[in-house]
Every structure is written in C-alpha cells, then in structure tokens.
C-alpha cells in the first residue's frame, strides 16, 4: 500500500518542481512497474526525494531499513551516508534480492549496503549496530513491534521514519470501516503520539510519512 493522498495533479506538480529523479531510479521505477503487480509499494520520485533529502540532512553513519522491496528507497537513503557509512536493509522476499543487487551496483552504492533476507523481527535483534536513521516500511501489523525492537538501537538525536501512516486515508474512517492494516497503523500512530521520549511529525507526503526524533 502506497497510494498518494495528495491530488494527482498536485503530486505531479510537486515532483516537477523537485530535483529530477536519478536515471538509475527512473530505470528501477520502470522495471518494477513492468515486472511487479504490487509496484504501488515503490516509494517513487517525490517520496524518494524526501527520503534522500532527510538522509542528507541527518548525515547518518548507519541506517536500518525494514522492507527493501526492489531497492528504490535504499538507494535514496544511501545518498546521505557519511563516508564509510553503511545501510542495513531487511527483506523477507528472497526473489527480490537479485534485482536489488543489480540496481545497487548501477547506483554505485552496492558496497555501502548490507542486504538481509529473512523475517525482520528475527533479524533486528541480531544486529549489534547503533542506527542514526531507521526507516520502517514493511508489514503494517508489526509496525509497533518493529518500533520497539529498534528504539534502543537508536541514539538520542537519531531518527525513525515510518511509511504509509495514513494508509490510503483509512486512518480517519470510523473504526468499523478500517481494514485490519489501517487499524494497526492507527494504533501505531497513537503509540507514537503517546511516547514522551520523542518529537514527531506526521507528514502527508504520498501515503503518509511519520518522522520521529529520539530526545531521551
């Protein structure tokens, strides 16, 4: 799920007057849409530019991405890594690994990225690194669990981003009209709002992006 909330013409205008999509990302976008029936999950130009800009502002030494998909967001986030920095990315679908590897190499970020194939809830506890930036973009029912798993791995001043936090606008529907995923996302948003250890902003870009900064 990654349905734009903004009207299509507004999103297109915003994309037009943002930095151009990198050629490698445009190629990845095309191939994903040609080969995948679930291409709506791709971050895309506008959100990818937001992720790249945030990473370049934060200048992380270590990034964790939960949900690689075809690698678009990983390439965007890797643009902000400090020299010698690394991005760990976790994907449950092993069939996507070769496509990701191909585009990581084309983008010149292959040596900066460590791919983990497996169940995120099992992979995360085994990672010993501290992460300046975490991006959660995987199965919606486990967002709260992923947040809890990564929180102590993020230093004070670090950031956690979460995608799809508007879930196609379903989060504002009456409870009985929300899908199971939308109910889980709404619960996650309530958890974030109640957490006194952070500052946060829900940004209505594409399908909603939560930006969390750890302050204690």
Our measurement of the CA-to-CA distance between the termini, rounded to an integer number of angstroms, reads 32 Å
Helix content: 25-40%
Number of helices: 8
DSSP strand content: 15-25%
In the CATH hierarchy, what is the class? Alpha Beta
User: What overall geometry do the principal axes of the alpha carbons give?
Assistant: globular
Radius of gyration: 16 Å
Spatially, the strands of the biggest sheet line up as 3-2-1-4-5-7-6
State the low-pLDDT regions, or none.
none
Average the pLDDT over all residues and give the rounded result.
95
The CATH superfamily is identified as: Vaccinia Virus protein VP39
Order of helices and strands: HHHEHEHEHEHEHEE
Structural category: alpha/beta
What number of domains?
1
Q: For the report, how would you describe the main beta sheet?
A: 7 strands, mixed
CATH topology: the name is: Rossmann fold
Architecture in CATH? 3-Layer(aba) Sandwich
Number of strands: 7
Walk me through what this model shows.
The chain has a 7-stranded mixed β-sheet, sandwiched between helices. The relative contact order is 0.15. The protein has a single domain (8-214), classed as Vaccinia Virus protein VP39 (Rossmann fold, 3-Layer(aba) Sandwich), CATH 3.40.50. The chain is globular. By secondary structure, it is α/β, with parallel strands linked by helices. Helix content is 38%, strand content 17%. It has helices at residues 8-16, 23-35, 44-58, 72-78, 97-106, 120-123, 143-151, 180-194; strands at 62-66, 86-91, 113-117, 133-136, 159-163, 198-203, 209-214. The protein contains 8 helices and 7 strands; from the N terminus they run αααβαβαβαβαβαββ. Helix 5 links the parallel strand 2 and strand 3. The model has no long low-confidence stretch (mean pLDDT 95). Helix 3 packs parallel to helix 4 (72-78).
